[in-house]
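Lab notebook, bench 4. We co-purified these components, and the gel suggests they stay together. Before we commit to crystallization screens, I want a quick structural picture of the whole thing.
Request: model the full complex, all chains together.
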Amino acid sequence: MEESLRSQTERPVEFEDQHPKTTKVVVLRWGHRDRDKRLTSHVALAARALGASGFVLADVRDEKIKTTIEKIVKRWGGSFHFEMGKPWRRVVKEWRSKNNIVVHLTAYGENIQTSDVLQRIKATAKDLLVIVGSQKVPSHFFTKDVSHFNVAIGHQPHSECSSLAIFLDRFFEGRALAKEYVGSEISIASEKSKIFPPLKKNEV
Amino acid sequence: MEESLRSQTERPVEFEDQHPKTTKVVVLRWGHRDRDKRLTSHVALAARALGASGFVLADVRDEKIKTTIEKIVKRWGGSFHFEMGKPWRRVVKEWRSKNNIVVHLTAYGENIQTSDVLQRIKATAKDLLVIVGSQKVPSHFFTKDVSHFNVAIGHQPHSECSSLAIFLDRFFEGRALAKEYVGSEISIASEKSKIFPPLKKNEV
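Here is the predicted assembly.
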């Protein structure tokens, strides 16, 4: 049994080839406060690692988060657009003016598991702006003026980070996790020696 | 088009019936520090909402997180076990002594997307302890003494919250999002009026 635990059946997937080039996802983070620093950083990193091509921290500026994200992009490669301070209304307006789609993640939306909402989003074949908020978003977010789709990652309280991750994982059908990042300074996948690092002597 | 955006094709799924009763998942959070309060709360809530039956905050105690989780369970229903302060070694030892499986989520593990690691975990048909750590976990976690499986939710840096969410979503094949919670004081799914809340006058 132990042998099979260690087998590494790699099935490389070409992310860019399989994913339609026309579909791009940008994440809009609404309602960030100073105490959310780490959480918002995690949301932005999840956006990047799960296939989004950019992140907008709406309405406010947070230099620390910007630095964190830019450092990660520099070290780990790929292209990822980070923007902050722009009012959310303007981001949404510009996005919609290009005939793109706005998806609002909310526990009050259509359940991604029990409804056909994901299929309908995919069927549009348009670029997506995914809004992740906090508990108290303006009701306006739910209206057709803002969101084409209100999507619930279940109806239980959890996290904008877990909600976004599941939405992106399902939207991209997991392919983002197999993506190769161009121009990285470090890469775990290519450093086989770093997989299962050896136990150091006397360690814990 | 607008009509189809609003259609609510519900396909209810019986969580308990479809999921084998023998497979239970408990999440072990390692390396929690005081600054992680909100993040650890989100990880615990993600664990609950995505199908885990319990959460262990290892080695340290944090009354605020305990209160948050207990309040959510009371209001939103279902059963969810929360424990804190127990040394991680003891949790792992007790878990393994019952012939159960330990899964360690780490960017240095086998990629859940490109390997067959998830199939091999499911094939054990055993209860899982899922360890989520921080960037610097003890190397010991990677060894066979601790973890039967080291699983990477991709090899890029993101978040223990997004990693756990994707692992659980894939492990339970999304069924947790359709689960009904017994004994809840509030429920979004049953309050149809709360789906797409009406816009308040003069709001934002």
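DSSP finds seven helices and six strands in chain B. Worth comparing against the SEC data before the next meeting. Chain B touches chain A through 78 residues (CB under 8 Å).
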